[in-house]
Amino acid sequence: MPMKHSTYSVIIVGSGIAGLYAAIKLAQTAKVPDGILLLTKSTLSECNSRYAQGGIVGVLDENKQDSISLHIADTIKAGCGLSDFNVVKFISENSQHAIKDLMACGVNFDRNEHNQLNFTLEGAHSVRRILHVGGDATGYGIEKALVEKIKNDKSIAPNITIYEQTLAVELLVDANDNCRGLISFNSATKEYEALYAPVTVLATGGTGQVYKYTTNPSVTTGDGLALGIKAHADIKDMEFIQFHPTALSLENSDSRFLISESVRGEGAKLINQNGEYFMQNHPQKDLAPRDVVAREIYSQLSKGNKVFLDASFIGIDKFKRRFPNIYKTCLENNIDITKDYIPVAPAAHYCMGGLKTEVNGKTSINNLYAIGETACTSLHGANRLASNSLLECVVCAYELVNTLSKQNLHSSKIIDETVLNTIKKYADSENESSEDFDIKALKDKVKNIMWNNVGIIRTESSLLTALSEINKIDEIFVSKDKCASLDEYELRNMLLVAKCIINAALSRKESIGAHYRADFQTTNTPLGEHACTVEKSEDKADDSKIIA
Ligand code: FAD
Ligand code: SIN
Question: Containing H/E element for 166?
Answer without folding.
Answer: strand 166-173
